[in-house]
């Protein structure tokens, strides 16, 4: 599988809810079963905020301008 530079995780080109994004990370990299998918996703997004563009935003979302997409 060839990974492009704009999608190094190889994620599908869609928006994920936070639970689904965490499950995708767990399937790709593995993780401790004591950590929920939501917490796993939030830890990942705190380190790599550019991936927050892959997360569905609520209607009352206020951008924090750290991802570059919103």
Give the beta-strand count.
0
Give the ordered list of helices and strands: HH
Distance between the termini: 29 Å
Q: How many domain units?
A: 1
* Cα Rg: 12 Å
Class based on secondary structure composition and strand pairing: mainly alpha
Strand content: under 5%
| Overall geometric form | globular
For this entry, give a set of tags.
70 residues; 33% helix; globular
How would you describe the overall organization of this protein?
The protein is mainly alpha-helical and 70 residues long. It has one domain (11-70). It is built from 2 helices and no strands. The protein has helices spanning 18-29, 37-47. Helix 1 (18-29) crosses helix 2. The termini are far apart. The mean pLDDT is 79.
């Amino acid at each position: 599988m060839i990974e492009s530079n704009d999608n190094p995780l190889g994620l599908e080109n869609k928006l994920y809810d936070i639970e689904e994004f965490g499950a995708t990370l767990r399937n790709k990299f593995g993780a401790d079963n004591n950590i929920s998918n939501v917490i796993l996703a939030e830890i990942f997004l705190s380190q790599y905020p550019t991936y927050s563009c892959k997360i569905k935003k609520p209607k009352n979302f206020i951008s924090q301008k750290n991802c570059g997409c919103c």
